[in-house]
Design a protein that fits this description.
With 391 residues, the protein is an alpha/beta fold. The chain has two domains: 147 residues, D-serine dehydratase-like domain (Lyase, Ornithine Decarboxylase, Chain A, domain 1), CATH 2.40.37; 194 residues, TIM Barrel, CATH 3.20.20. It contains eleven helices and 18 strands. Helix 5 runs parallel beside helix 6. Its EC number is 5.1.1.1. Keywords: Isomerase, Lyase.
C-alpha cells in the first residue's frame, strides 16, 4: 500500500510539493494524527468504544493511523470497502448503508471468509429477504436496525411498531439481531457549534430508547451505535451508547469549520494546484485544479461564509486573505477574492503553486487515486498512500 519515498535510488529524486504533478491530493500526517487523538480522547472520557467510518480515507494506510495496534472495528459505506479493508486484517465491520436484497450474497461471502459483518435495515421487507437467504443454513451477517433520530434520511422512529416487527421477523427466521444504529445527519445544519450538544443528546436518546423498546419486547440489543463527526465532538453524555462512529473527523474540511467543529488549521487534506493563467480585467487567477480535482461539492454555499469550491493557501498551507476558488470547470479553477472583500488579489505568477482546502474532504478525496503525504510545514513528500474506489 505505502510506497516509501525516503530512500530514492540514484536515478530518482525525492518528490516534493514543488515537483509533484498537479493537481494532487496532499495529506498532512501530523494534522491527521492530531485529529484522531482529539476524538479518541473525548470518547475515552465518555466511556464508549470507537468504530471510525473509513469512507473518508478509503485507504488502509490511513485506517492504520486510527488504531494503536493498526487495526480495529470499522464502519464502511460500500461492500467494496469491506472487501478492501478485510484483506488487510480489518475483520470487524459494519456496513452502514441500507441493505438491498441483491447485495445479500456478497455480505454472506464476506462472513464466510471470516469477516464479523453487521448490515443495516429499516423495513420488514429487508428482514424478510435476509430470512429467505438464511434458509440454506449458510453464513449470515448480523443485523442492526436503523433508527431515525432527526428525520434526516432512513430509519424507523424509536416508537414505531415496525421496530419490533422487524426484530420479530429476524428472530423467527433465525437471523441474528445485534442492535440499533442511528446517524444525526441534521447536525450538519448547525452553524458555529450552536445546537450541536442538543443534536448529540437527541441522537443518543433516540438510539437508547429504541434499544430499550426492543429489550422490553424480548429482543436483545447489545449494540447501540451512534455517530456523526459534529455530534461525536459535542456529546456531553453517552449513557446507554456502546459505540460511536465518525468519518470526516480525521481530515476535517471547510464544512466542518463552518459548522463549528474545527479550525481551518485542523484541516489535514488539501489539493495542490498550479497557476496556469490570469484574467486581470475580471480579477481572476486560473489554476489546473477544476471540479475534477476538487469535486462539485458546494457544501458551504449556505453557510455565513461561502468558500466557493475551496479556500486558497500558499504552497505551505497559509491561507491568502479571502481568496477562494470562486468557480470551476472540469480542469480549470478560477481563483477570485470573496465578494465584498477589501483584500488585495495576491501576485501569483504563472507556475506558482497553491494549496486549496476542500469543502468536503470525502468528495475531494474521491477524485484522486493516492495521497501525497507530508509533515506540517514541510514540502517533502514522504510517502504515497493509495486510495480505493468503487462499490
Amino acid at each position: 500500500m505505502t510506497q516509501a519515498l525516503l530512500h530514492p535510488t540514484e536515478t530518482d529524486t525525492v518528490e516534493s510539493l514543488d515537483t509533484v504533478e498537479t493537481p494532487a491530493l496532499v495529506l498532512d500526517i501530523a494534522k491527521l494524527d492530531r485529529n484522531v487523538a482529539r476524538l479518541r480522547s473525548r470518547l475515552d472520557a465518555l466511556g464508549v468504544a470507537f468504530r471510525p467510518h473509513v469512507k473518508s480515507g478509503k485507504s488502509i494506510d490511513v485506517a492504520r493511523r486510527l488504531f494503536a495496534d493498526g487495526v480495529g472495528p470499522i464502519t464502511v459505506s460500500t461492500l467494496a470497502e469491506a472487501d478492501y479493508f478485510a484483506s488487510a486484517g480489518f475483520t470487524d465491520i459494519t456496513y452502514a448503508v441500507g441493505l438491498s436484497p441483491d447485495k445479500i450474497d456478497r455480505t454472506r461471502e464476506l462472513v464466510a471468509a471470516g469477516v464479523d459483518l453487521s448490515v443495516l435495515i429499516d423495513s420488514v421487507d429487508q428482514a424478510r429477504a435476509l430470512v429467505e437467504a438464511a434458509r440454506d443454513g449458510g453464513a449470515m451477517p448480523g443485523v442492526l436496525i436503523e433508527i431515525d433520530c432527526d428525520g434526516h434520511r432512513g430509519g424507523v422512529l424509536p416508537d414505531d411498531p415496525a421496530l419490533v416487527a422487524i426484530a420479530e421477523r429476524l428472530r423467527d427466521g433465525g437471523v441474528l439481531l445485534r442492535g440499533v444504529l442511528t446517524h444525526a445527519g441534521e447536525s450538519y445544519g448547525a452553524r458555529g457549534g450552536a445546537g450541536l450538544p442538543e443534536a448529540a443528546e437527541q441522537e443518543r436518546a433516540a438510539a437508547v430508547n429504541a434499544a430499550e423498546a426492543l429489550r422490553a419486547a424480548g429482543h436483545a440489543s447489545p449494540v447501540v451505535s451512534v455517530g456523526s463527526t459534529p455530534t461525536a465532538h459535542f456529546a456531553k453524555n453517552l449513557d446507554g451508547v456502546t459505540e460511536v462512529r465518525a468519518g470526516v473527523f480525521m481530515f476535517f474540511d471547510l464544512v466542518m469549520h463552518g459548522i463549528g467543529v474545527c479550525e481551518v488549521d485542523d484541516i489535514a487534506l488539501s489539493v495542490i494546484a498550479t497557476v496556469i493563467g490570469h484574467r486581470p480585467e475580471k480579477g481572476w487567477i486560473l489554476t489546473d485544479a477544476g471540479w475534477m480535482a476538487m469535486s462539485r461539492d458546494r457544501g458551504t454555499q449556505k453557510h455565513p461564509v461561502d468558500q466557493g469550491y475551496g479556500l486558497v493557501c500558499d504552497i505551505d498551507g497559509k491561507p491568502f486573505a479571502d481568496l477562494i476558488v470562486e468557480d470551476a470547470s472540469q480542469e480549470h479553477g478560477i481563483l477570485k477574492l470573496r465578494p465584498g472583500s477589501g483584500a488585495v488579489l495576491p501576485d501569483l505568477p504563472l507556475g506558482t503553486r497553491v494549496r486549496i482546502l476542500p469543502n468536503h474532504a470525502c468528495a475531494t478525496g474521491a477524485q484522486h487515486d493516492s495521497y501525497a503525504v507530508v509533515e506540517t510545514g514541510k514540502r517533502e513528500v514522504t510517502a504515497r498512500w493509495t486510495r480505493m474506489r468503487g462499490w
